[in-house]
Design goal:
Helix content is about 30%, strand content about 25%. The protein has about 90 residues and is α+β, with helices and mostly antiparallel strands. Strands 1-2-3-4 form a four-stranded antiparallel sheet, with no helix packed on it. The radius of gyration is 26 Å and the shape is elongated.
Amino acid sequence: MARKLVLVLVLVVSVLSVVGAGVWAQTRRDPTSTTTAPEVLSGENVGVRVTGPADQKGNVPGTLVVKINGRWVDVVSTPKVIGAGQ
């Protein structure tokens, strides 16, 4: 009888450990790491404006910016079509 009780106790603890590990793995790492104001990581005239928090892999989304007259301005790229004969 005592052996069955120990076996059930070990089984319950094992199941709770697996469920706890699964729940812990699904939670956010740092829920307080929200970006409130745009932060620019930059050199003197070129930088990257951080647009959101890091993802699971640690990648941080950003926008390329340049400094014009003391203000950070988003870089806009206009595609140019070049013909085959040029």
